[in-house]
Amino acid sequence: MSPLKVALRCPVSPNGGYGSDGIALATALTKAGVDVRLHPTHISPPLSPLVAALLTKPLEAPFDLWINHVSPDQLYCSEIERAASATTIAWSMWELSSLANLKGKSKLKKQLKNFDVFLGYSDITLDGFEPYLPKTTISALLQGGYDPTLWPTQERDWDSPRFSFIFNGEANLRKDVWTTIAAFQELKDEYPEEFEPAEFHIHTTLPSIPKVIETAIPKLRVHYETWPQETMLEFYKSGHVLVSSSHGEGKNLPCLEMLSTGGSVIATNWSGHLSWLNSQYAYPLDYELVPLHEAKYGKDCQWAATSKDHLKELMMHCFRNRAEVRHKGMVGSQVIPYMCSWDKVIEDLFLRLSVILPEKGELLRLKFEECKKEQAERRGNRESVQY
């Protein structure tokens, strides 16, 4: 059987969700023994030696599989790419209940016509894309993963009075960090003595929160810096609960990373969070669906507006019940790496293809299994030589 050859069109960058996913997806496929050929939409350093080496490989057809893992507006498969690939996949995410506010959506159906399969990160994504998918394109749910090896479990101080809530990500309108800021400030006002040891640290590269807010709200700090992975790991370690009162997510990498390190999360109980959010290791946050700029996009384009009162309850509960939070963090650090790693996701990818594309998909699965077997044998031979 010939090797499995996969063309991967994606951004290649450690900055941003799609870029990080592109790097991690390419890495996981390569480590499984797949012959990956990158077709990057964007590149920015730093890159690992493995990914840098992939950029030297020519994009030579034919391919067994062509994966477009990009934002909705960049999904496209040309006639040449279609002819060069046995199977073509569009893989994307969306955070709202419709694509009404997507620029260029009128061209989307045409751009999707050459894909055999559309994979959406969440049910919300699938619902949004459904009106634009050609009848010949099969849709299925499959959320992307993360690299748990970068985020090992960290020991935290659960016994001192200090308790830290954190936020990590671009503090834009969709992330809605202001609801968390308001909840934190009101708890400071309502419980000035009891809640005094509580801290809230916001890490963002988007200068949308004025630093003067630190003087208005006790123990709130804003960190406007670009951090390397090692510093980011220390930031997660310094926190006990990551709070995401987001209006909507495709996946939310910071939540998975925080859970992997042994902290817990409070997260909106909607959209992409639903693929991994569970009360056994996290705290689902209540919400109501509200129109996004109703006059402009209509009532069918909605996102989640989280309950500030429920958020305050959850934050205060976490502050008062540290043993419970610690236990949830321990459970999350065991469950999330297994359930959400890119290794697990690509296993699910080929299993899913074997079901929805019975002939071509089953051949892809068999080739993938053969790649893994040969890779394991090569690894075993190298270890024997070293021994």
Whole-number count of domains: 2
Under CATH, the topology of the largest domain is which?
Rossmann fold
The N- and C-terminal alpha carbons lie at a distance of 31 Å
β-strand number: 14
Describe this structure in words.
- This protein is an alpha/beta fold and 387 residues long.
- It folds into 2 domains: 186 residues, 3-Layer(aba) Sandwich (Rossmann fold), CATH 3.40.50; 166 residues, 3-Layer(aba) Sandwich (Rossmann fold), CATH 3.40.50.
- It is built from 14 helices and 14 strands.
- The protein is globular.
- The protein starts with a strand and ends with a helix.
Strand and helix map with partners:
Elements: E1 5-12, H1 17-31, E2 35-43, H2 49-54, E3 63-69, H3 79-84, E4 85-92, H4 108-111, E5 117-120, H5 123-129, E6 138-141, E7 163-168, H6 177-190, E8 198-204, H7 213-216, E9 220-224, H8 229-238, E10 241-244, H9 253-261, E11 264-268, E12 283-285, E13 287-291, H10 294-297, E14 302-306, H11 308-320, H12 322-340, H13 342-356, H14 360-386
Parallel strand pairs: 1-2, 1-3, 3-4, 4-5, 5-6, 7-8, 7-10, 8-9, 10-11, 11-12
Antiparallel strand pairs: 13-14
Helix pairs in contact: 6-11, 9-12, 13-14
Would you summarize the structure shown here?
By secondary structure, the chain is α/β, with parallel strands linked by helices. The chain folds into 2 domains: 5-145 and 342-386, 3-Layer(aba) Sandwich (Rossmann fold); 149-282 and 309-340, Glycogen Phosphorylase B (Rossmann fold). The protein is built from 14 helices and 14 strands.
